[in-house]
């Protein structure tokens, strides 16, 4: 029995979930799963062909790798085995991802609902100790809001939290806070002498590396928490913290305490309740009346799989001829069939799928700076309808130029892939003298410069005064906007479109644009 929090991790990050789910839907959905070795091997081949599972020599030829991925998606409440037929089915959350809904809001809900005990944690081969009755990710957010804590390192999560936090009582919370503070003061000396024996790995006690397994789990837990876009590890100390512009959202989430999902020992019942997406309150589907799988349905699933793979790589706001041709070639179907299917399933594209990758870009530092710049240019073009130019490769030029002929202005955007960006003296001078002052060096049009803006993962506490200093020196309005706020703009734009005039007003606020400012 596992005596600590445990999450399965065929992949340590959740970014690949939509593509893996689509591959499973293509290969194993509506098929019997238990003890079906041929199906397991078929799925393993499909995962490798899709590039979501590494190809390699298989020792047992039993499809064990495929079973691990199935367990992963079960643990997240995206699929389940139907009790009567033993066939794999999608939950509402799984269906929503397959329908092209933005995956982050859906998986964020699943992560926050993740609990011990669950159908997965009680399953054979997992068997997390029954002493745990806790929603681990809600508990972590509560700790991160705690003034005495504020951040958590991988070591603190692995050596203290996941072994000590067994329920959501005040007594347990106070004890865990105390144990974290003790660890910060005394390190490993604060841990019990028989630590390795109290928390052995699945392979038994390992006194030579008694923390390795727990630290691996802690790393995966941090990755999952980061996927929610509520918290992020900093570049300097690698400790995870709630993002400053998400503190109010986290407080609102924790202000409500939902009931635990009951009957975890009943797989289908539990999974249907756990797998409810934000649009559903209950799952009353009669899955015994599921249609017979036809050739047309199989083709549709293949097209879905290819589309989801593309939507994770770039923002797709509508179905274009180039996209249709690309997917038709990939799946080997007629262009007409692919076009009709995509227009039926994804008439508005699937912008939200790409925003997972865009969020990550904002924290990768200089290594992936060019990709971040190009993605910003593509978003302002594809989503908000600007003419955009990626000019970051030109000496002494900003990263992105946006142009609005309709409203008669242009704007410049500088991307900074950092979690806490501050405008240094060098960057101040560059914006004043080269970017705003040297507009004619990289733009030969007639549209006047309306604003400058910085987009980053997060900003330092003095960002407003730094923006105002540039405005005062140049006479050009400016702003700073987090990647979270950009994502919020994209989501709102799908409901009520931002006009170019409204975007000009927002990006000319002479301060950091906050989430409460983003009202259409």
Textual characterization of the structure:
The mean pLDDT is 89. The protein has four domains: 1-103 and 264-290; 134-259; 291-352; 369-517, Restriction Endonuclease, CATH 3.40.91.30. It has 21 helices and ten strands. With 520 residues, the protein is an alpha/beta fold. The strands form three sheets. Strands 5-6-7-8-9-10 form a six-stranded mixed β-sheet, with helices on both faces. Strand 1 and strand 2 form a beta hairpin. 45% of the residues lie in helices and 9% in strands. Helix 1 crosses helix 2 (37-49). The protein has helices spanning 17-27, 37-49, 64-75, 92-98, 103-113, 136-145, 154-164, 170-186, 195-198, 212-227, 247-255, 267-274, 295-311, 321-331, 335-345, 351-361, 369-382, 425-436, 463-474, 483-493, 500-506, and strands spanning 79-81, 88-90, 231-233, 240-242, 387-390, 400-404, 409-415, 449-456, 477-482, 511-513.
